[in-house]
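REQUEST ID: PR-0412
SUBMITTED BY: lab tech R.K.
PRIORITY: routine
TASK: structure prediction, single protein chain
INPUT:
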Amino acid sequence: MSKRTTREVIDRIFKEPGIKYELTEFETLGKPIHEILDIQAKTLDTGRDAGKTKYFLKSQVPFSSGKEEVQVYVEGGKSAPEEIVRQLWVYKLIHQYGYQPDEIDLEKSIQFSTEVGTKAADIIVYTDDTKETPKIIVECKKPKRKDGLEQLKSYMNAKGAPVAVWSNGSDSVILYRPYPREFDDTLVDIPRRGQEPKDVLEAKKTLLQLRTEFNFKKIVQ
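STATUS: complete
OUTPUT:
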């Protein structure tokens, strides 16, 4: 069997054609997703999977464990659509929001109280490359999934991150944590590199003022 292209593997992962086109979160990236992602085939020679072809997605940044690729599809077996969503988010953070690869962690263990839990954050963006101060946490789900928001809030509290995003590729929720254990959805976007949440809030306020002034002018004219 000939090895599949990145585009063909993505089509296999999202078996229902409509689901792939529901990844509207990434419509502004300027490229189709099969041109952003790099999926390579490996045929195993030994072990119980000998002869099987598995497909691995090259990560935009290394995982915290050091690995640089992740399995996303195996012929006749499991697929990992959430990994497609995660890597598209990493691309978006770098190319749309300006973050540097060395300011991003993937699959980072979260410590609750004095113990390290089995949970790990999908993506953590830091204020700089020292990776000491978390700025944004991103939780990625496969399309149509709706769970994980409460889990994301617990990650924000544990890491002290002021902003988080929950995304399944089409729907997203931005959480803002202005005070410990207090959350709201007043942010219309996440901060870019060099921005703080207050900058996004100010931009929203300015936009609302402009809209109000525009509407007022329409009324009085």
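NOTES: Residues 212-221 have pLDDT under 50 and may be disordered.
REVIEWED BY: pending
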